[in-house]
From TrEMBL:
Its cofactor is FAD. It comes from Aureimonas endophytica. FAD binds at residues 52, 141-143, 307. The keyword Protein biosynthesis does not apply. The active site is at residue 438. Residues 346-448 form the Pyridine nucleotide-disulphide oxidoreductase dimerisation domain. Coiled coil: none annotated. This is Dihydrolipoyl dehydrogenase.
Length: 471
């Protein structure tokens, strides 16, 4: 069979893989982008977009139920589950069509359909018998849903993000396993759409939050809509047409559900790559050991980006990593660290959650913390969305912002501004010296910033003190 030659071969045509191919080509490399299906990115097919379409429907139903608070009398919403899921798939199909156009617009000969495995550090073997010789290779194979073995006996009632959006209707009852961002988002969305939801997690915290104060407040807020049980192990068995879930640990109990949604993490897609043939050192999870700054795997001409490296599994990070990996692959052996933004993750629950930069505790040396509550914040009360807590972490000397954990109304927007401020090395006093329009959600941040100024012995700008209160 034929041997193909290129400068950079990229395995995987998701967000990271496409970014890597573009970056390598932009740096003068002859590229091949290898994928077994070119089915679309994880975000478009089973991640960001279908989940947000479901959340949008849930928010509409929730708004109807909230209307009487404002003196607007309504009848309880009637949820047409089939219509909800039909719109989700219809809009997703439009996103997928646009996604496919980006593949079709690649230069001739770049996209190569096939399943690849390593036959050496610079060589790939394809499932059709062809081989690829490359000066450098980028692994960007993404991740996949994983179902724990203890659900094997009820496999036909188990859903993942790869199957739940294919349903024709909403489930009547649902046990959601995994209280990370995906599990929380989908649990709340289905609950608001009328599904009887209960959320379970083996760890003791939700949303992966390290800040205990924000985590406790978020848990309290979300528990108004569906039960949350953490710190437990689960067993599952068939009970007629239902799944009987039993949990034990910090709590014990048993309950039947129509289905189980497993959202407890996505391991990297590395099986079948034959990494041993590449001579790569692997960590205890079987992931190649790599340099987080360059994305290079040891000293090999191999780079790994996106969900495949199990580091920062969010879309903008995958894009950044692909860009860095592609550039370094094109210039190998001259590799250099890439510029990375402030670590930034959002959870699209209501209230939104954001974790930015470094997370600290009251015991962290040389760090001060400013806290703001949205329970009594002016604009939040007007909108009947007065719930949540924001915590800023700053250097004790000078008040430079280091990070934040935010749960509150409008956080998905405010968090961008805070991330940019952290990246620019801004201080709490410098932010307070910027305009805060009244009345807005953004005003709610001021009390946390003022607390940092007071604790770090930084003077609060006089112009801020003259501005209206956030209340």
């Amino acid at each position: 069979m034929a041997e193909l030659n290129c400068d950079v071969a990229v395995i995987g045509a998701g967000t990271a893989g496409r970014a890597a191919e573009r970056s390598a080509r932009r740096h003068g490399a002859r590229t091949l982008l290898i994928d077994d299906g070119f089915a679309g990115t994880t975000c478009v097919r089973i991640g960001c977009m279908p989940s947000k379409l479901l959340i949008a429907a849930a928010e509409a139903a929730h708004a109807v139920r909230q209307a009487p608070i404002f003196g607007v009398e309504t009848v309880p919403p009637r949820i047409d589950g089939r219509a909800v899921m039909a719109r989700l798939r219809r809009e997703r199909a439009a996103f997928l069509a646009s996604d496919r156009e980006s593949i079709e617009s690649l230069p001739a000969g770049v996209a190569l359909r096939g399943r690849a495995r390593f036959a050496g550090p610079n060589r790939l073997a394809l499932d059709d018998g062809r081989t690829v010789a490359a000066k450098a290779i980028v692994i960007a194979t993404g991740s996949h849903s994983a179902v724990p073995e203890n659900f094997a006996s009820v496999a036909d009632r188990v859903l993942t993000t790869e199957t739940i959006f294919e349903r024709g209707d909403l489930p009547g009852s649902l046990a959601v396993v995994g209280a990370g961002p995906i599990g929380l988002e989908l649990a709340q969305a289905f609950a608001r759409l009328g599904t009887d939801v209960m959320l379970f997690d083996k760890s003791g915290a939700i949303a992966g939050l390290k800040d205990r104060i924000v985590e406790a407040d978020l848990r309290r807020i979300l528990a108004r809509e569906f039960p949350i049980v953490t710190g437990v192990d689960l067993t599952a068995e068939r009970h007629g047409e239902a799944v009987r879930i039993a949990w034990h640990g910090e709590a014990t109990g048993t309950r039947d559900f129509d289905h189980v949604l497993v959202a407890a993490g996505r391991p990297p897609n590395l099986a079948g790559l034959d990494l041993s043939a590449a001579g790569l050192k692997l960590d205890k999870h079987g992931v190649p050991v790599f340099d987080e700054a360059t994305l290079q795997c040891g000293a090999a001409p191999i780079f790994i980006a996106g969900d495949a490296n199990a580091d920062r599994a969010v879309l903008h990070e995958a894009s950044d990593e692909g860009t860095i990996a592609g550039r370094n692959a094109a210039n190998f052996p001259r590799v250099r660290p890439g510029e990375r933004g402030v670590p930034f993750q959002l959870t699209f629950t209501d209230p939104n959650v954001a974790v930015l930069g470094e997370v600290a505790t009251e015991e962290t040396p040389d760090v001060v913390i400013g806290t703001a509550s949205y329970a009594d914040q002016g604009r939040a009360k007007v909108m009947a969305r007065n719930a949540g807590t924001v915590r800023f972490y700053a250097a004790r000397q000078g008040g430079r912002l280091l990070g934040a954990t935010m749960a509150g109304p409008g956080v998905e927007h405010m968090a961008h501004l805070v991330a940019w401020a952290i990246g620019d090395g801004r201080t709490a006093a410098e932010l307070l010296d910027r305009p805060f329009y009244h009345p807005t959600f953004e005003e709610g941040l001021k009390s946390a910033l003022r607390a940092i100024c007071a604790t770090s012995r930084t003077t609060v700008p006089s112009r801020d003190e003259a501005r209206p209160s956030a209340a």
